[in-house]
Each structure stands twice: as C-alpha cells, then as structure tokens.
Amino acid sequence: MKKFWDRKEKPYVLIVFLLPFFWMLGSLLLGHYFPDPGKLLMRLSGIWACVLMAAALSVTPLMKFKHLKALTRYRRFIGLSAFFYAILHLVIYLVLFAGLSWRWIRSDLLEKPYIYAGVLALVVLFVLAITSTKKMMKRLGRNWKRLHRCVYLAALAILLHLWWQVKSDTSLAVIFSVIFALLLGYRLIVNRKYLTFKRGH
Ligand code: HEM
C-alpha cells in the first residue's frame, strides 16, 4: 500500500485526471460530436469540473478511513484538475459557442444571466488555485483556511448556474445539489461539534 502511494506514481495520477480531456479531444477530432460539438463539449467539460470539485470536497470526510488518509496528498491536485476542466469549459464557450466574438458574448450574457453565476464560481476557483501553493499557505497563515472555505461559495455558485439554466431536465442539477448538500452538511456538523467541544474545555 505504502509503495503504491509513493511520489513516483504522480505522473500516472496526472494521466488519469487528464483522461476525460483526451477522450473529449479524441472524440472531437474523430467527428463524434458533429454537427454541434460545442453543446456536448460544454456539458461534458462542465460535468467533469463539477465531479472533480465534489471529489476535492470529499477528501476530508474520506480521511476518517485509515486506509484513505493518503488521499490528502492529492487534494490540491484534484482541486486544480477541477479548475482545469472549468477553464476548458470557458475556452469551449469562447471558441466554439462565441467564435471569439465579443459582440456575440455581450448579447448572450443578456439572454443567459446564469453565466454570471458560472463566472463567479470560476473566479473563486481561480483565487483558490493561485493560493494553493505551500508558499501561499505559509504567507497567508490562518487566513489560508478561511479563504479556502470559499470553495463552498464556488459550489453554491455552480448550483445556481445549473438550476438557473434548467429548462425541463432537472437531473444534473438535482444530482449535484444532493452531492454538494451532503458535503456541506458534513462540514457544518463537524464544525459545530468542534466548536461545542472547544467551549466545553
Ligand atoms: C466563465 C465561466 C462559465 C461560463 C461562461 C459558463 C457557460 C455555460 C453555458 C453557456 C452553459 C450552457 C451550455 C448549453 O447551452 O448547452 C453551461 C452549462 C454548464 N456549465 Fe457552465 N459556465 C461557466 C462556469 C462553469 C463552472 C465553473 C462549472 C462547474 C464547475 C460549470 C458547469 C456547467 C455544467 C455542468 C453545465 C451543463 C448543464 C446542463 O447541461 O444541464 N460552468 N455553462
């Protein structure tokens, strides 16, 4: 077990996290997503960003299990992967949806206000990504933890992004609402227990 979680496995972990990207790129090049590649790629990249965010938020609860403690070493990596897929989502929007036309984007923003919620989530993820290094951790000290709790703000913004754009099929919004609610609920219960324990001492 120890050997499996040795640092040497990092490049393989990177490949695993990039698999959805290569799969999307391959399918696009092979013409599987035509005639409207933008629509499907937007959905896939957005779903992968949500899945990896949920995975990053699951690391703390999973650490309760002794055998899964090694996962902490990958929390930053998983979080950065979520950011990577969110950026990919934005690039697909800018290139395949908007054709890099600012005028088109301006009129689209009027039609789809849910994009603002997506932008908010992406901005939060960006701040978390650039402050995720050991150096920033040291520099920010206690505030680092406080800042990184904003990941829950990003999760809420994503849920808003999903619910706001629902037309008839609510399945994706429901699935991620349940997942994020469970993870946030766990966090709130643990924090409350900790505070009660602290007051009692
Ligand atoms: C600059 C930031 C963002 C922009 C411009 C943006 C834009 C969009 C647009 C236009 C759609 C609808 C695509 C369609 O019509 O089929 C969409 C869907 C989606 N977005 Fe975003 N988004 C952003 C950020 C995010 C982030 C940060 C996440 C998750 C971490 C996310 C997750 C999703 C998902 C899962 C869908 C698919 C929803 C569905 O098909 O029901 N988005 N986004």
UniProtKB/TrEMBL annotation:
Primary location recorded for the protein, binned into one broad class: membrane
Keyword Transcription regulation (UniProt): no
| Cofactor section | FMN; heme b
Keywords attached to this entry: Cell membrane, Electron transport, Flavoprotein, FMN, Heme, Iron, Membrane, Metal-binding, Transmembrane, Transmembrane helix, Transport
Q: Which residues form the Ferric oxidoreductase domain?
A: 46-158
Q: Which Pfam families match?
A: Ferric_reduct
InterPro entries referenced in this protein's UniProt entry, alphabetically: Fe3_Rdtase_TM_dom (IPR013130), MsrQ-like (IPR022837)
Q: How does it sit in the membrane?
A: Multi-pass membrane protein
Plastid as a keyword? Answer: no
Can you supply one Gene Ontology CC term for this chain's record?
plasma membrane
Q: Which positions, given as ranges, span the membrane? A: 12-34, 46-65, 77-102, 114-130, 150-166, 172-190
GO annotation, biological process:
protein repair
Cofactor mode of binding and number, as noted: Binds 1 FMN per subunit.
- Give the subcellular location: Cell membrane; Membrane
Q: Which GO terms describe its molecular function?
A: electron transfer activity; FMN binding; heme binding; metal ion binding; oxidoreductase activity, acting on diphenols and related substances as donors
Q: Which family, according to the similarity comment?
A: Belongs to the MsrQ family.
Describe the protein's quaternary organization and the partners it interacts with: Heterodimer of a catalytic subunit (MsrP) and a heme-binding subunit (MsrQ).
**Main role?**
Part of the MsrPQ system that repairs oxidized periplasmic proteins containing methionine sulfoxide residues (Met-O), using respiratory chain electrons. Thus protects these proteins from oxidative-stress damage caused by reactive species of oxygen and chlorine generated by the host defense mechanisms. MsrPQ is essential for the maintenance of envelope integrity under bleach stress, rescuing a wide series of structurally unrelated periplasmic proteins from methionine oxidation.
According to UniProt, the name of this protein is Protein-methionine-sulfoxide reductase heme-binding subunit MsrQ
* Biological source species: Marinomonas gallaica
Q: Which gene encodes it?
A: yedZ
